[in-house]
Design a protein that fits this description.
By secondary structure, the protein is an alpha/beta fold. It has 4 helices and 8 strands, in the order H-E-E-E-E-E-H-E-H-E-H-E. A hairpin with a 2-residue loop joins strand 1 and strand 2. The longest helix is centred in the N-terminal third of the chain and has 14 residues.
């Protein structure tokens, strides 16, 4: 019914001097505003090829934790003080003090990143500590396997998984006693 009313209105208007056309004319006659115009190399300033810049090339072995101490971590030459979240290629400060602060909220950054993380390695400090079962259940529901270890072993596990090119992340709390791990390139 609306189409019939519209057609009748246009028909009345066409008999009063309006020209009906099945094709709408553009508001401006500029060729740059026409949908049919394609930019060519001769259009100088308007023609630009799409380019991609690689900000950081992938390393052969991925991110490596080179050392740790009670103050923090040395990750690929970056000194990180205090607890950290390693989400390749990013290294972030992690707002936890002890293993008791590892909550559903504090691990939310691990399940919200893309591409999806396969394995999360949690380092709980000098000793292996128990993580709240609700946190582990949340990560399992999100499809993330969790490995909970003391920090020295968590660093070694992260390095191993990273060298295998696995989609892995780590949440690390510095150990109270330094048993410094050093990675040497031979």
């Amino acid at each position: 019914m609306a189409n019939a009313t519209c057609a009748r209105f246009l028909l009345q208007r066409s008999t009063r001097g309006f020209l009906l056309s099945s094709r709408a004319a553009p508001a401006f006659s500029s060729p740059f505003l026409s949908r049919a115009h394609r930019l060519e190399p001769t259009d100088d300033e308007l023609y630009q090829r799409t380019t991609v810049s690689v900000m950081q090339k992938e390393q052969d072995g991925g991110i490596m934790i080179q050392s740790y101490s009670p103050a923090g971590f040395n990750i690929d030459g970056n000194r990180v003080f205090g607890p950290c979240a390693v989400l390749p290629p990013a290294i972030l400060q992690w707002n936890v003090g002890t293993f008791k602060d590892i909550t559903e909220e504090s691990v939310s950054l691990f399940h919200m990143v893309e591409p999806k993380i396969e394995i999360l390695v949690l380092g709980t400090g000098s000793r292996l500590e128990r993580i709240d079962p609700a946190v582990l259940a949340l990560l399992k529901r999100k499809g993330i396997a969790v490995e909970v270890q003391d920090t020295p072993n968590a660093c070694a596990t992260f390095n191993f998984l990273s060298s295998e090119r696995r989609m892995t992340a780590a949440g690390l709390i510095p150990p109270a006693v330094s048993t410094a791990l050093e990675v040497t390139n031979e």
